[in-house]
Amino acid sequence: MMASIEVSASPNSAQWQSINWKAVKQHVLKLQMRIAKATREGKHGKAKALQWILTHSKSAKLLAVKRVSQNKGSKTPGIDGIIWNSDARCIGAVNQLSRKGYHAKPLRRIYIPKKNGKLRPLGIPCMIDRAQQALHLLALEPISETAADLNSYGFRPNRSAADAIAQCFKCLCMKRSSQWVLEGDIKACFDKIGHQWLIDNIQLDKRMLKQWLGCGYVDKGLFYKTAEGTPQGGIISPTLMLLTLAGLEQLVKSIACKTGNRVNFIGYADDFVITSSSKEVLVNEIKPQLIGFLQERGLTLSDEKTHITHIDDGFDFLGFNLRKYKGKLLIKPSKSNVLSFLSNLREFIRKHPTIPVNDLIKILNPKLRG
């Protein structure tokens, strides 16, 4: 289907290079702001109409194609083997981004190693499917940003892991701060989210969402159906997960109001910490409610990674260790991260024994600063 794109290469190339990207982004941003405003005011019908306008606008289609053709995974094809590596192909792709007659292709399954030695499965969509997801993500992001928890930091624009750690510091650094911490981790979050819950609760084009959730995947030449979860590798998957977990902080705060305890929530993707001045409240009130909240969405807490610890014993979160020493909170890189970093440096030096010292220092300095 994509092979016909290269026919009139030079006019298409000139057309792509002459695009005023600043004007394109401003047009999309205006629509996104209107969607966010309508969502805040509870005008869901208006928000839905604006989403339709956005996903059918040329500006949004241009931005979607630009994103998938220039990001890190742009050189990794899906099952059709096609990549958009020229301006002509990108313009052709914009003209193909239509809802009418669209059918999502199965994902290409690949495996990448995890820290614990296991393999993480990734589902790689075709370029056209990635572009469709990026297009609809532009319409979903204003809603996800409006609905997401205040202290949720993962997969959100202009937020990072450093912001989550800074919030942890604010919640734990004082003498009167909470002493007990529940470290939460959701088991195989991407792979287990319930499809029906997503279809019923996510304000997105249902026909498109159903296709992305049920497109299946191809592994070693065999096709497999997908009955649950969102593909790790899909552009829209992180935002779907963010919306699935939206409301966790509100739930925790409502329990805090009933018990009269000071409670804080800090989340990053499927990892989160909840601080409280009472261990009993975490064990007897908050944890059971968390389990119920997640079960409704087809998710479960990981028993091996979910702990309740005292701040004097310390805990690991997002690659950092947070612990109080004689009442003073110190945040350091976690032991496992330091060891991993050192082993990577050793491996690099072993692989390049002949590299001049000056060149080696230039390569290592940015890593050490990071």
UniProtKB/TrEMBL annotation:
Reverse transcriptase domain boundaries: 93-322
Q: Which PROSITE patterns match?
A: RT_POL
Sorted alphabetically, which NCBIfam families does this protein's record hold? group_II_RT_mat
Q: Which family does it belong to?
A: Belongs to the bacterial reverse transcriptase family.
InterPro entries given in the database record: DNA/RNA_pol_sf (IPR043502), Group_II_RT_mat (IPR030931), GrpII_Intron_Splice-Mob/Def (IPR051083), RT_dom (IPR000477), RVT_N (IPR025960)
Q: What is this protein called?
A: RNA-directed DNA polymerase OrfA
Single GO MF descriptor:
RNA-directed DNA polymerase activity
Species of the source: Shewanella piezotolerans (strain WP3 / JCM 13877)
Per UniProt, the keywords (alphabetical) are: Nucleotidyltransferase, RNA-directed DNA polymerase, Transferase
Q: Pfam families per the record?
A: RVT_1, RVT_N
The keyword DNA repair appears for this protein: no
